[in-house]
Design a protein that fits this description.
This protein is of the alpha/beta class. The protein has seven helices and seven strands, in the order βαβαβαβαβαβααβ. Bound molecules: NADPH dihydro-nicotinamide-adenine-dinucleotide phosphate. The site of NADPH dihydro-nicotinamide-adenine-dinucleotide phosphate (NDP) has 30 residues, from helix 1 and strand 2.
């Protein structure tokens, strides 16, 4: 196991699901962890107490507030942008404002957070976005904006890897397939359809996704940048 003793880690969207698993993983390896939340203050407070981390209320759709928050925190060794929303539905029915909000959270926030963090991040820092296997395979209707938002992260890490590479800062996107969270419960109504697209027919756990995030954040991964990693039971194979 890597050790993140003495490292400062910020997880955007850490109160529940995959983000909470990432918070637990870094905290268990000795990092000083901060995480943001928006709608789940009770979950955030419980997780902060459990992991001795710090919870900060911050809306990832508010660009200026997000940049100001990250700038105020001082140098981060690791930034994980996990906050994301699904926004499923018929594109003919979804109000444009909802789509714009999805793009602000799923696309704009990762970009602005990465740039804000990179201003003070020490050489060798790590930036990781949580994307989705839907960037590579979208076998269901009603998720065009979501898959577009997650596909954008693949291009974003390629470009920012070039911008930050001289400082040894790596930036990658982890692309989960179906993962057991409130967003996509393992016993939800679509589970059989989703498992039908997979070689290993089960939801991942948040801890499995957090394991790849920890690897990419550790010293062995210093040569990995601008890359997208599917962790999806073969969903996109
Ligand atoms: P959940 O809905 O279970 O949790 C989402 C987390 O993001 C919560 O902690 C939530 O905080 C936070 N969040 C959402 N919107 C905002 C916002 N505007 N500002 C700050 N925090 C916010 O989702 P998952 O854990 O399932 O998903 C996490 C990431 O993984 C997302 O980016 C998602 O797209 C991606 N993903 C998930 C998959 C799955 O099958 N579960 C598959 C592929 C990708 P709060 O409740 O406090 O608002």
């Amino acid at each position: 196991m890597n050790s993140f003793e003495g490292k400062s880690v910020l997880v955007l969207g850490g109160s529940r699901g995959i983000g909470a698993a990432i918070v637990r993983r870094f905290a268990s390896e000795g990092a000083k962890v901060l995480f943001t939340y928006l709608s789940s203050p009770d979950d955030a407070a419980a997780l902060a107490a459990e992991t001795r981390s710090e919870a900060l209320c911050a809306d990832s759709s508010d660009r200026d507030a997000l940049i100001e928050l990250i700038s105020s925190l001082g140098p981060l060794d690791v930034l994980v942008v996990n906050s994301g929303i699904l926004g499923a539905g018929d594109p003919l029915d979804i109000p444009p404002n909802e789509i714009d909000r999805l793009f602000r959270i799923n696309i704009h926030a990762p970009y602005h957070a990465a740039v804000a963090a990179a201003r003070t991040m020490p050489d060798g820092g790590r930036i990781i976005f949580i994307g989705s296997a839907n960037a590579d395979r979208m076998p269901m209707a009603g998720l065009a904006a979501y898959s577009a938002s997650k596909a954008s992260l693949k291009g974003m890490v390629k470009g920012l890897a070039r911008d930050f590479g001289a400082r040894g800062i790596t930036i990658n996107v982890v692309q989960p397939g179906p993962t057991d969270t409130d967003m996509n419960p393992a016993d939800g109504p679509l589970k059989d359809i989703m498992h039908g697209f997979m070689a290993i027919k089960r939801h991942a756990t948040g801890a499995e996704i957090a394991g790849l995030v920890a690897y990419l954040s550790g010293p062995e991964a210093g040569i990995i940048t601008g890359a997208a990693y599917n962790i999806d039971g073969g969903f996109s194979a």
